[in-house]
Amino acid sequence: MRILTIGAATALSLALAAAPAPAATPYGWTPTVQLSAAGQPAWDADVAYSASGSAVIAWGRYDGAQYVAQAVIRNADGTLGSIRTLATSDQPLGGPKAGIDADGNALLAWTRWDGTDFRVQARTLPPVGPLGLTQSLSHAGQDASAPELAVNQDGHGVIAWTRSDGNDYRVEGRTMATTNIAGVGDLELVSDDLQDAREADVGIDGDGDAVFVWERYDSADNLIMSRTLRENGSLDAGQTLSVLGASAQDPDIAVNEAGDAAFAWTRWDGQRDRVQGLVDLASSGAGGLPGSSQWLSAVGQAAVDARAAIDETGDAMFAWKRWDGDDFRIQSSRLPAGGVLDAAETHSADGESASDPELAIETGGTAAIAWSRWDGAVHRVQVRRLPAGGIPWAVSTRSANGVEAESSTVAVQPGGRIMLAWQAFDGNDNRIEYSVGSPLTPPVDAEPAPHGGVATLP
Fold first, then answer.
1. What is the mean pLDDT of residues 236-259?
2. Per residue, what are the HEC states of 52-100?
């Protein structure tokens, strides 16, 4: 396993103005589509693209009596399937999180109150036909929270979460395929006993090997830990990614089909929080353990909310928000496989704070970064296309003027098509909305009329 770390000598020049760059080829966005029903608040959208162009969008909703987890498949031709209800609960649902394979089969996970505790549950959603059976993944009698999910193109899936045993928090995980033919894998305790562990994230490669990352308290500081669950069910030894002596938190991971992984997190540098990252190029087969992590954000101002993405060649992208002395700005940097870290680029405009960066990348290296930015009256959802080896495209503001919008999520399909979803206030409630950006040759997908229709199937 060859390890690529970020050279300490790399200069991180910070562009304090996001200069819009004209697109080399035409690019357009579909009209905004409102997915969730009117009169019922909705939140926490999640999106995922398959290699074939189909996508899944999931969200939580309150129907006036119960909390509901819902999802819909968007076909490669731009048509929407029926909105499906995955679960209902008398207490708030956590999630749902979504993943999708190359054939358009989706896997979704959430937390649901069982009358005594919150349990992690999951269910499959095919392009056509009935939903799969609901599977309860976490044990009864112990609260579970914050599920994260990853799916590879062959349909192998993995879910990670945090659960409380009454004394400490633990990271657990379980495998589950998008078709659910083989049921679910064994329940795995990923973190060590007798140490608080939480904030888990997970990725999975084309062989079905899943890589977990989490933060763990070592009695002095929080450390970033990682561990691999092999496709055969065996667990590798845990690895400490962050250095001792300073607290680290909020890890994020991305894993490609070849098994390369990109990690990012926030760490205290002695004066303020900054963002660190690490890339593990497992596909090179050179062997070894992860090398030392390095700083991504520049010294001098706080940076948090680290995000990571990696394409099929091992080129990694990182994103975060950084304080510029007056406002938070959204920044990113690309690390080519075998190369050196590019200079940091600032994407959000000067003068108003931006937050909630989200990052995605497709197999060819085109990335998309999304965020929410205060315009002086409301928060607006913005997105920028970052071509592989090219100049970033102009920032696009997707939410409507005068409408409070936030909590965006983004996915990128091979070919550079971007799906962006968010929640927007309609005057009474938050609604889930989305828009798709794509090159105009071929034309942008035709979108159905906005709707909030719901179809609940067994």
1. 93
2. CCCEEEEEEEECCCCEEEEEEEECCCCCECCCEEEEEECCCCEEEEEEE
Supply the mean pLDDT for the chain: 88
Q: Quick check: 157 and 172 in contact, CB under 8 A?
A: no
Question: pTM of the prediction?
Answer: 0.90
> Quick one: CA torsion of 192, 197, 199, 200, rounded to 10 degrees?
10
Backbone angles phi, psi at 405, to 5 degrees: -145, 140
CA atoms within 13 A on the CB side of 56: 30
Query: Are 196 and 217 a contacting pair, CB within 8 Å?
Result: yes
Instruction: Using the predicted structure, report yes or no on whether residue 135 has a pLDDT greater than 70.
Output: yes
What six digits make up the tokens of 318?
């990182």
Of 228, 300, 227, 303, the C-alpha closest to 265 is: 303
Domains and CATH numbers, the chain: 1-30+250-444 (2.120.10.10)
pLDDT of residue 441: 57
Q: Is the pLDDT of residue 447 over 60?
A: no
- Determine which of 91-95, 117-121, 329-333, 438-442 has the lowest per-residue pLDDT on average: 438-442
CB count within 10 Å of CB 288 equals 11
Compute the distance between CA of residue 422 and CA of residue 451 in angstroms, rounded to an integer. 16
Closest CA to 125 of 165, 97, 162, 159: 97
Lowest mean pLDDT among 11-15, 46-50, 141-145, 344-348: 11-15
Report the run of H or E that residue 136 belongs to, with start and end.
strand 135-136
Closest C-alpha to 294, from 260, 317, 265: 265
Under DSSP, is residue 282 helix (H, G, I), strand (E, B) or coil?
helix
Q: What is the mean pLDDT of residues 38-61?
A: 95
Beta bridge mates, 61? 42, 68
CB 99 within 8 A of CB 151: yes
| Residues 6 and 277 sit within 8 Å (Cβ to Cβ) | yes
**DSSP annotation of 410:** E
For the stretch 179-218, pLDDT in tens is 866 679 999 999 987 779 999 999 999 999 999 999 998 8
Identify the three-state secondary structure at position 283: helix
Determine the residue type at 203: G
What does residue 282 show for φ and ψ, rounded to 5 degrees?
-65, -30
Residue 74: what are its φ and ψ, rounded to 5°? Answer: -105, 120
